[in-house]
Design a protein that fits this description.
heterodimer, A: 200 residues, mainly alpha, 74% helix, B: 205 residues, 8 helices, 0% strand
Chain lengths: 200, 205
């Protein structure tokens, strides 16, 4: 046996399996259930409503509903990545997919804590906290991903895995960034501007 | 005791950037929103400021607590701090000596980079939107200072996420250079602002 070849560490890339697909399906099902919960409270719940809006109004509906979907998918993505066989801790955090999704979850949770505190001090209802934290706005998810990805790039630790799992994570994080650029810059102005142009 | 060569030295370009940044920030701090909009040719948001003022007057009738005074200070200090952050961050990002080898990306340098990139992107965005009057579109518009106040927590959360990743990667290694500590100081201020907006302000109210 060649001693030199055995010394080279073997990198195991786990393929996207059936259980991973089931986790994703469960995430989408959870999102559908959440839509049923948030929908009646905000009059934005039904996908059919997208076609009701004239001009670019559907963009706003899409933004609100995909924000929640992205949050649930980010959690699912981290769960999928943490299933064994998984890379070692240091290798794990070098992967932009899981790093982006974990940063997005961190951003959403920080905003949720902030909302919870303001609801608690304002003595408002629990429903309003859930709607405020997980429905209308996602202001911190995008910047958290920017910070995490730039930290990987600056320190030259960006190691994208060629498999589907990391690619899915990168796709979710990229969607978060588009969502942030369109909608969550102060005042949702670019979304408004796009809506106006689509309406013409 | 660290030697001077380990700490790095301040050169004339650092001093020049510092003087320009402090002067520009001082000028910004001494101006009202209306002055700035007029002098830079930006669209007028005084009507929004008037609504805010009415609200502030109603609040002023009640007793002013320490929390409210802190909140006012934060609102006033943020716009010049955006400029200060870009200037001081640029100093922190510079290499210690011209021609020196690639610098380490420690937590201070990463925070400085984010403290330059995000605030300067925000300043550029505000300028484009207000100079070319995109503000007539859509809703949820803010005053000039209000927009920066809304964006500031984003810088804090980006730095917090970057530091968390550095920690998880085992790259949280501080150097003794003053530029590293300047970056750390900038990052800490952005994170304190984030904590203020997300936690302390709600508790204070």
């Amino acid at each position: 046996m060649d001693a030199g070849a055995s010394a080279v560490p073997v990198r195991i890339i786990r393929k996207f399996g059936l259980l991973d697909a089931m986790i994703l399906v469960a995430a989408v099902a959870l999102w559908s259930a959440a839509l049923r919960y948030f929908g009646p409270a905000t009059n934005w719940g039904n996908w059919v409503s997208i076609w009701v809006f004239s001009g670019g109004g559907w963009l706003r509906v899409l933004q609100r509903q995909t924000g929640l979907l992205l949050f649930i998918l980010s959690i699912a993505m981290v769960l999928i990545r943490l299933r064994s066989p998984r890379p070692k801790r240091l290798r794990l955090w070098r992967q932009p997919g899981v790093t982006g999704c974990a940063a997005a979850i961190m951003g959403v949770l920080v905003y949720a804590i902030s909302e919870a505190l303001s609801q608690l001090t304002g003595r408002q209802e629990w429903d309003r906290f859930l709607t405020g934290a997980f429905w209308y706005q996602w202001p911190y998810a995008g910047p958290a991903i920017i910070g995490a990805w730039l930290a990987l790039l600056f320190t030259r630790r960006w190691r994208a895995e060629p498999g589907s799992i990391d690619r899915l994570g990168r796709l979710i994080a990229a969607c978060w960034l588009i969502e942030f650029l369109l909608a969550e810059m102060p005042g949702r102005r670019w979304l408004s501007i796009l809506e106006r142009f689509l309406h013409r | 005791m660290p030697r001077i060569s380990q700490l790095g030295r301040v050169d004339w370009l650092d001093a020049l950037i510092l003087i320009v940044t402090v002067a520009a920030s001082g000028w910004l701090a001494s101006r009202s929103e209306a002055d700035l909009e007029k002098s830079l040719g930006l669209c007028d948001t005084r009507w929004l400021a008037d609504i805010g003022q009415q609200f502030a007057n109603k609040k002023a009738e009640t007793e002013q607590s320490a929390w409210q005074r802190c909140s006012k200070f934060q609102q006033r200090a943020l716009p010049p701090f955006f400029l200060l952050s870009t200037g001081l961050g640029s100093i922190a990002l510079r290499r210690p000596r011209p021609g020196s080898s690639r610098s380490r990306w420690g937590p201070g340098r990463v925070a400085a980079a984010l403290g330059v990139l995000l605030p300067s992107a925000s300043i550029a965005e505000e300028y484009v939107l207000r100079r070319f009057n995109f503000m007539s579109h859509g809703d949820y518009h803010d005053t000039l200072f209000g927009a920066w106040q809304g964006f500031a927590p984003s810088v804090g959360i980006a730095i917090a996420a970057a530091w968390t990743i550095l920690f998880l990667l085992g790259r949280w290694k501080l150097t003794r250079a003053w530029r590293e500590w300047l970056g750390l100081f900038l990052g800490a201020i952005w994170i304190v602002n984030l904590l203020w907006v997300t936690l302390l302000q709600s508790l204070g109210n």
